[in-house]
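Fold this sequence, please.
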Amino acid sequence: MHDENATPTPDESHAADGGLSRRSALRAAGIAGAAGIGLGAVGTGAAHAGTAEGAPAGRAEARSGATMVNVPFQARSTVRVGIIGLGNRGGSMIDLFLAIPGVQVVAICDPVKEKIESCAKKVTDAGQPAPGTYAKGDHDFENLCKRADLDFVYVATPWDWHFEMAKTAMLNGKHVGVECPIAMELGQLWELVNLSERTRRHCMQLENCCYGKNEMRVLRMAHAGLFGDLLHGAGAYNHDLRGLMFDPDYYEGPWRRLWHTRLRGDLYPNHGFGPVSNYMDINRGDRVTHISSFGTPALGLAEYRKANMPPGDPSWKETYIESDRTISLVQTAKGRVIRLEHDVSTPHPYSRINSLGGTKGVFEDYPARIYLEPDHGDDVWHNFGDYAEWDHWLWKEHSNPPGGHGGMDYIMIFRLMQTMQLGLVPDFDVYDAATWTAPVPLSHLSIKAKGEPQEIPDFTRGEWRKKRSGVDSAKPSA
């Protein structure tokens, strides 16, 4: 990903959440294609964005349990972790869990035996007891979730499985963190909110970009008022994944490319939406209310296939409908505007845009640059490094963190485990997870309706009006 001193590198870990087998991905593709994705017939006819109970998308459902806003974890000296999915993402993130004192990996799950063996060795090489292993088919994760000696389940599998695995973890009394996006249907997002409230277990979107060094610096500056009254922001996932999506081994199945045959909208909004939501205190004093999306023709993957794939390759049976570039405008209750972009099908240097503007100035990333009054008055960009004093305490404590993406993965996992060990409120919750993922189904509907705005539900059921902390958290005294 990105740090301020390095050229952005391919987002390999997040681009490869898959840890399940090729058979699993094909099965998931089949059931998704047969059942649709809660949107009506994809690509044909009228689409419906109702919740699981059929209520209009923008309306809050009746609460089925007390809110999970400001609910702390129960403190524990050791956090016992189970990991589902040991592919490129899960197989690397296990190293970070093992690097944090007071964290024990007690169970791992993946249908691929070689991945199980490799990750089990990592656990024992770290001096921990051999983990329980679950490799008996696609649904052995259910047995992992039933274990009595687990506190937290981490899900790093193809997107098709995220909802089912998060749901299973909570129903078995486990807190759960899921790679992006947390689900693919609006009704599923509501169901995860309801389950979190009923089971009293946190369900979190593990959005690592919220913990990027630049993102956390901008967050603290915004909260300190350096940008004045906030007006607009932008975030994106513009990353040329064509080669990886046609690699038969990288995305097993290949599950990620198949989503381009099902949806037209923004398949991966979280990396851009999460950080900008934090800047604007979304769900903590403001909320997003509507999204309007537009998409280009779907040409990039077909052109890449024509130039690179041999006759008879299975990809020739696929018809791509996903817009090469999706551009969405999101409105907030306070009148602010957020621009989201998604493009993984055309040539483009890696960029998450990561921009924030207010009445006193603006920041833009890729490359990082800033213009603020009264510091600047010459109408030219200035060095963002001049504002290093605003770095978050996590980056001051961990100036050279291990792991990928410039260290943001480690910062995220360290902070999550810290909140569980100390019994703190997590930095983000199920309401943030649902909000950051809602553009997946809603952008598809808006594009089909020629940009017609779609209501974004108030997943907090009114709690968004209350100010509270989030990723810009105070350093624990303990």
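The chain has 16 helices and 14 strands. The CA atoms of residues 76 and 421 lie 5 Å apart.
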